[in-house]
Amino acid sequence: MIAERLNDKRRMKKIPARLLFRYTRGMPRVWKIFVTVVFIGALGTLGTLDALLLPSDVGAVMALQPHSNGNDASSGVDIHTGPDVTGILQSQHLTPTSDGTGNGSLLSRIITDPATVQTYVLLKDNDRVALFSWTQSANVKEYFNAMRTALLKSFSPGVRDLHDDRVADPGKPVRDVLSFLDPQISDEKIILMRVQDRLYEFHVAPGKEMDVQGLMEALSM
Fold first, then answer.
1. Element (H or E) spanning 42, and its range?
2. d(CA 119, CA 210)
3. Which residue stretches of the chain have pLDDT < 50?
4. Please, are residues 136 and 153 in contact by the beta-carbon 8 Å criterion?
């Protein structure tokens, strides 16, 4: 009986490693580090012990899926009706398109259920403004913290314009914002912004910082 339990424990420890190898195979080294750290962080912060107990890929993948029902007592974040993203894009004269989105966003690499992450390329006067990705979940605080930790550990020596801020403007919800430019991760500046139960990601095209800043302000109401 004791030997059987030890064998079961060994098999459970092998599951996450096997899955990580599968999902990071072929990625650049910096992406492997990022995905691995977020995976481990999500397992810890979300308390997804079941992911280690299920003998299939589904269990581990579910560790990174947002829960959509009500609120999460562990995160303290309630699901609510946030700003109308489509209406805000129109008001900012930004046209969303799915062309060229691919797997470029960090969120789409970490949250494996495509139905929970919306990703667009934003155009203005036919010029690329940004890759824009967002998700809504009671667990966005955990997602943001796990991604932040992973990125801070995987930045290359060439990273610049690194800012890690909590913004508390009067009359607006608190925003957690991480922004950086690291050529080993992307040629474009990346901004992660958590506002209440939403997590937004922007890959900013050169010279389009003001357009993205206006969009961020509108999404923070």
1. helix 29-45
2. 20
3. 1-21, 23, 40-77
4. no
